[in-house]
């Protein structure tokens, strides 16, 4: 049975970063990936039957606000491009679709300004990047985001507008979302204006380009189609067992699989309380991302709504074969991404009468290696668990976007968390090596 210093479970952004940083520190590394591809919850592939390649998982970055992803983009000299400038708008709030660049009359501005000022003020309390989000003094924010908003007694249109953004950004309804997690992204953006302006930058060639560069950096070996089902810490080494019975041995293991998949793995000794609680409760992200091909449009569309099936719909590309719209529903129950008729009805809520030529989607909620989408803490989970989730369990370390101190749910968070897990592992490996050298000198002396 082959033995290495570090086994990394998962080849998404966190896994690639953890593997590279472990190898850079001089350790032998093996990456085990359950799928037949790199990327984890990102996936850049062709729209069904078309030449156009699209992001079916994570897509955007905000390099001016996201320090870790910015450093990787600069390290590997990757190029970015932007989503189009929008010409047409639709806002699904107040029980109607409002077609205007911004959906409020002057009479609603005082209420909007009041709630945004409070959101920005509460967001400033969060020490973003400095430590896990469950920081003392923030307990009053770890409540349902809908309850947080309802403190302000807002007009219906303003309330709907405020609730619509996290419904899209987190892939869950506001009553299932911790306001603390929602506000942490506002902290990262710098103000509430960021929700509206910053989701534009994408990597030329797709997200896979960056993951490939990170792994190639140290010529790392990846074994695909390895469905890890057991991680057993024997005290002086760890044995990882795949579904087919194949076993791998290492001094340390870094688990970068998403929280919602941890129940699939038999950990021995059993996971600590917070890890086990999150594995059982799950995080709330269950977005359905769809791509819809429509006849070529002269104007790019942007829409956001809370009562619409799609919480966000926008033109991302226009080609000779048509325009590609990207949309997000907040839950699997709201939309079957494989049902063309259902996708057509959802798109037509924003764009009445438009023909949807075809649609494509990946069901992340029923994908056994994700069992959901990106991180969306439920109310109460941040304060209860976020600190403990970053701690190792014996020789087993944890790193994925779910566990980030900053952008939990983004590529940036995955890179941050993967690097932290590698640093924790490296420190212990180096300490063990130093102790072994000291013991050898004593014996020789």
UniProtKB/TrEMBL annotation:
Keywords: Oxidoreductase. Gene3D superfamilies: 3.90.660.10, FAD/NAD(P)-binding domain. Its cofactor is FAD. InterPro entries: Amino_oxidase, FAD/NAD-bd_sf, Flavin_amine_oxidase, Flavin_MAO. Pfam families: Amino_oxidase. Substrate binds at residue 328. Residues 13-424 form the Amine oxidase domain. GO terms for molecular function: oxidoreductase activity. FAD binds at residue 228. SUPFAM superfamilies: FAD/NAD(P)-binding domain. Belongs to the flavin monoamine oxidase family. This is Monoamine oxidase. It comes from Mycetocola miduiensis.
């Amino acid at each position: 049975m082959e033995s290495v210093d570090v086994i990394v479970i998962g080849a998404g952004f966190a896994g690639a970063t953890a593997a590279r940083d472990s190898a850079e520190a001089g350790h032998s590394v093996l990456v085990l990936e359950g799928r037949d591809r790199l990327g984890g919850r990102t996936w850049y592939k062709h729209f069904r039957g078309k030449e156009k390649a699209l992001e079916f998982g994570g897509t955007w970055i905000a390099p001016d606000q996201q320090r870790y992803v910015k450093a990787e983009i600069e390290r590997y000299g990757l190029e970015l491009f932007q989503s189009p400038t929008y010409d047409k708008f639709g806002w699904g709030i107040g029980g109607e679709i409002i077609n205007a660049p911004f959906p409020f009359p002057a009479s609603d501005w005082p209420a909007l300004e009041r709630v945004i000022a409070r959101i920005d003020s509460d967001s400033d309390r969060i020490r973003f990047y400095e430590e896990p989000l469950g920081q003392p003094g923030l307990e009053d924010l770890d409540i349902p985001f809908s309850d947080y908003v309802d403190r302000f007694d807002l007009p219906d249109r303003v309330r709907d507008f405020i609730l619509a953004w996290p419904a899209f950004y987190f892939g869950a309804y506001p009553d299932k979302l911790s306001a603390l997690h929602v506000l942490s992204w506002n902290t990262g953006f710098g103000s509430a204006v960021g929700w509206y302006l910053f989701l534009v930058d994408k990597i030329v060639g797709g997200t896979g380009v960056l993951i490939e560069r990170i792994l190639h950096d140290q010529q790392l070996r990846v074994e695909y189609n390895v469905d890890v089902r057991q991680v057993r810490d024997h005290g002086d080494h760890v044995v990882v067992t795949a579904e087919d019975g194949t076993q791998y041995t290492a001094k340390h293991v870094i688990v970068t699989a998403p929280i919602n998949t941890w129940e699939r793995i038999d950990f021995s000794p059993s996971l600590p309380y917070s890890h086990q609680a999150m594995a059982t409760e799950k995080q709330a992200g269950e977005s359905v991302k769809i791509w819809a091909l429509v006849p070529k449009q002269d104007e790019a569309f942007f829409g956001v709504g809370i009562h619409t099936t799609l919480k966000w719909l926008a033109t991302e590309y226009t080609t000779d074969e048509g325009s590609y719209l990207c949309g997000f529903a907040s839950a699997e129950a709201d939309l079957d991404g494989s049902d063309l008729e259902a996708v057509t009805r959802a798109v037509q809520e924003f764009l009445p009468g438009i023909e949807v030529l075809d649609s494509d989607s990946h069901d992340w909620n029923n994908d056994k290696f994700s069992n959901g989408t990106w991180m969306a803490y439920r109310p109460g989970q941040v304060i209860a668990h976020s600190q403990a989730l970053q701690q190792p369990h014996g020789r087993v370390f944890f790193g994925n976007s779910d566990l980030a101190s900053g952008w939990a749910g983004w590529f940036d968070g995955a890179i941050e968390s993967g690097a932290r897990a590698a640093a924790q592992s490296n420190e212990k490996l180096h300490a063990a090596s130093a102790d072994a050298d000291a013991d050898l000198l004593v014996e020789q002396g």
